[in-house]
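note to self: the first set is below, dont mix up w the second
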Amino acid sequence: MLQGRSFPCVAVKLLLYISCFHLLPHLTSTLIIQRQPPELLLGILTTPLPPNVLRNRLNQFRLGAFEQYAPLARLILDSTRFLGFSPEQVRTALDAKGKKEPFIILDERTSADGSVWYINRYVDEVLEDKEVLEEWLEHDAINVKAGERILLKSRRKMIDVPTFFEAIQEGQTDILAELPQPYDPGNSSVPAQSLYDWEIDPPKPPAPFIVAAPDEFEVTRDPVETHKFVIPHRGFPDEVVRLKAGVARQQRLVAKWTLIMKKYEGADSPRGSVVLQQEWDVGVVRAVDGELVDVE
């Protein structure tokens, strides 16, 4: 009898639990993280690498590309066709097939110090003005034979390649400016360079654009927060927004006050949705057994 009378109470509690469970934010979330497709970069082996070394170097590339967030670049590996080739020979072979894009070369130094060659175009293609080219050859290059074409190549740490690649693609840096001066195209022992100190001050992945529904963000009109922002020709905004802490945490984002980029009216989100930018909650890069890894 006692069991019979307690059953409805148990059932009601169970139904209430299920109803609340279905209302939890992480189950009803319509949050959209707008990710751009990664740029594709060809990686070429000119010497065989031990499997464990190759695996580690590829992991360094993924770390530098922020693959666990929104990858900047994706590596396409060619491990057999160009064994024994020089960088110039690889460039010539690819050009003959109409492939003019930059690429990287993994060679014997890749195993020793984790660096690769970043290969671009020839100097005479970049500096098409003959006077500018002659001036560059006179002041910025050494050990160059008459009539020799100079291939632009930069020695980079594997972890640095994705951000370096993006900086060049976006016009934020010029490979000519990144070359050691004077530039000796025949010097294969040039030290590897990096745009960042990945252990001490690593770069952050680009902050993504977020489409958030009304129940996924919060708004404030507090001048303490709104006066941290200035809209050109308009002054301080009336309000600023941020993701709710639980929503941000679920997506590995940081809830931080920011401007509304625009109202979002797509059919895949409810009315009142907005577009905002939030930073990734990144891990910490540390050296483990001599290799850089992402530590949570």
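second set (the one i keep forgetting abt)
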Amino acid sequence: MAETQSSVKEVKPDIGGNIALDKEVIEVLPPGSRVLEASSFGSPAWTRTARIEVQLADGSSKQYFLKVESLATTWQWTYRLADNRFQCATEGGEVMMEGEFNSMSELHQLAPSFVPQPHAWGKFHLADPVTHFFLCDFIDMETEMPDTANGRVLKPSLVHGDLWEENAAINLSTGEPVVFDASAFYAHNEYELGTWRRETIKFSRSHFNQYRRNIPPSEPIEQWDDRIKLYSLKFNLAHMIDGQGHHSYGKSMYRCSVCSIDAR
């Protein structure tokens, strides 16, 4: 059975090492539980975590996930408007642990199979520096994300990068189109259409239709318009930052998010 700890260092061993549990953690376990094993688990960047295996009062076993954070290793960046600079100040793990507990509790209430069930958060009894913890169910999981592309391969294309009517013209000698003022890079070819969605751009539905006749939409086709909306945000935001009519560009970004090309 795991023993209670006397300092925070005992709950921050090397990965895989056994740990001693603070009595405050033991007290939030189900009544009649007997701790069989507690060991460091995972390698998060800002906290330390552990897996706890207990035997419940009815003889069944259960595993819990423990996360701890101390004052010495939690930092918060804040912006000081008065002197226009950022400052870094220490902040205890209390806010982090309480925030995660409340967040996970709300999510679990609405979608219990989507998140591990949270059980408690609190403060270590014997710890220096001050240390807080969060406890929830332990779930065996695979962090490798599923292949949402379903085998589709997107080939990068060389794009102009800022293609609109002010950067395109007709060569009077040849009658052929020419483009200029490029900021080229390799990307999804549909990225080029993002700037066409801006409210002030003269390219119309006919330009989109002609583009699609020459270059069919990527799969999934039904998400084509959503992708163009996404790409357009970069151009709208850039022009807002540039100071060219904040109000009108704010309206443009809103319309971009709620309107489709067919509604233009």
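remember for set 2: Confidence is low (pLDDT under 50) at residues 1-16, 73-90, 259-264.
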